[in-house]
Amino acid sequence: MAVEVASAKQASDIVMLDVGGVCSFADYFVICSGDTKRHIEAIWQSVIDEMKKNGVISHHNEGTSDSGWMLVDIGSVVIHIFAETERDYYQLDSLWNKAIPV
């Protein structure tokens, strides 16, 4: 569902990783990018709203658009929404390279 919401908000470079075998706190990561602070916030808010609409409440939300990295933690899935510069800097896609792309 998070992938579809991010896609509907025109997030770029959307990746879903099965991190269950290499991560103790989540089964999946969804990683995507937004073009501007406002775009990052819109993706983040849409993910939260759509989850709530479907009875899924986030455990933890973190970050600000000013930091270039916002996330929504719904337990088994963590959604990371980056500005391109922060995504390039942190390289989560590479950091979790033993995860299986979905």
Automatic annotation (TrEMBL):
<dbReference type="InterPro" id="IPR004394">
    <property type="entry name" value="Iojap/RsfS/C7orf30"/>
</dbReference>
<dbReference type="InterPro" id="IPR043519">
    <property type="entry name" value="NT_sf"/>
</dbReference>
<protein>
    <recommendedName>
        <fullName>Ribosomal silencing factor RsfS</fullName>
    </recommendedName>
</protein>
<dbReference type="GO" id="GO:0043023">
    <property type="term" value="F:ribosomal large subunit binding"/>
</dbReference>
<dbReference type="Pfam" id="PF02410">
    <property type="entry name" value="RsfS"/>
</dbReference>
<dbReference type="GO" id="GO:0017148">
    <property type="term" value="P:negative regulation of translation"/>
</dbReference>
<comment type="similarity">
    <text>Belongs to the Iojap/RsfS family.</text>
</comment>
<dbReference type="GO" id="GO:0090071">
    <property type="term" value="P:negative regulation of ribosome biogenesis"/>
</dbReference>
